Amino acid sequence: MTRIAIVGDGPAGLSAALFLAKNGHEVVVFAQDETLMHFAELHNYLGVASVTGTDFQRIARDQVTAAGARIRTSEVTAAEATADGVTVGTADGDQETADYLVIAGGKASQALADAVGADRRDGAVVVDNDSRTTVDRVYAAGHLIRPERSQAIISAGAGASAALDILARESGRDVHDWDTPPEA
Ligand SMILES: Cc1cc2nc3c(=O)[nH]c(=O)nc-3n(C[C@H](O)[C@H](O)[C@H](O)COP(=O)(O)OP(=O)(O)OC[C@H]3O[C@@H](n4cnc5c(N)ncnc54)[C@H](O)[C@@H]3O)c2cc1C
């Protein structure tokens, strides 16, 4: 089973976690529950008439844990990319290894992107359309990569893009994560 470490529990990190966990991968989300969403009331998240950011987060966290991801309340303070994968270290002195790392902790997580050696341009971490950084197996998404144009739905989309790329790499072909209603 592929193991993915995700730093950040805002829309970007939780969206990546949902796609990966529902497809059977082992996912740990390092979380602090200090997302900007707690200041927001959304009226521009397509498909949702309106919701407070705090309610959005509660629903999203429940959805992600129901899909099988582990949300660990712990600050990641160190990250290293190796030929085999990634290692993250936490403020409580623990270490976890993974096959992939998704950095989605907003501006606060910029130092982790620097620590793994991801390129930056004009201050922002460089990513492609699949949220891949310049370091193999390391992705970055959300507020971290576009601090001046940050929206919840864009963060969620970027997290989903990272997840789809990981799913594609692991299955060796392009993938969709498409579900259909039960037959009547
Ligand atoms: C006042 C206000 C109103 C807003 N209103 C809207 C709106 O109406 N519509 C809209 O679309 N957007 C709105 N936004 C923006 C929206 O909240 C952000 O776009 C969104 O939260 C970004 O999501 P994210 O997942 O990229 O990062 P964040 O939401 O910043 O989440 C990052 C999470 O990762 C955690 N973290 C960071 N570093 C680490 C680490 N090292 N280890 C572990 N955890 C870590 C943080 O504590 C945080 O919980 C608003 C923002 C503000 C401030």
Could you characterize the architecture of this molecule?
By secondary structure, the chain is α/β, with parallel strands linked by helices. The chain has a 5-stranded parallel sheet, sandwiched between helices. It has a 3-stranded antiparallel sheet with strand order 6-7-8. Strands 3-4 form a two-stranded antiparallel sheet. The chain contains 4 helices and 12 strands. β1 (3-7), α1 (11-22) and β2 (26-31) form a beta-alpha-beta unit. It has helices spanning 11-22, 53-66, 110-116, 152-171, and strands at 3-7, 26-31, 41-42, 51-52, 70-73, 76-81, 86-90, 95-98, 100-103, 120-121, 124-125, 138-140. α1 (11-22) packs parallel to α2 (53-66) and α1 (11-22) runs parallel beside α4. It has a single domain (3-171), classed as FAD/NAD(P)-binding domain. Helix content is 29%, strand content 24%. It is globular and about 50 Å long. Flavin-adenine dinucleotide (FAD) binds next to α1, β2 and α4.
* Uncertain segments: none
Shape: globular
> How many DSSP helices?
4
How much of the sequence is in beta strands? Answer: 15-25%
Structure described in brief:
By secondary structure, this protein is of the alpha/beta class.
Which short descriptors sum up this protein?
29% helix; binds flavin-adenine dinucleotide; single chain; alpha/beta; 184 residues; five-stranded parallel β-sheet; three-stranded antiparallel β-sheet; FAD/NAD(P)-binding domain
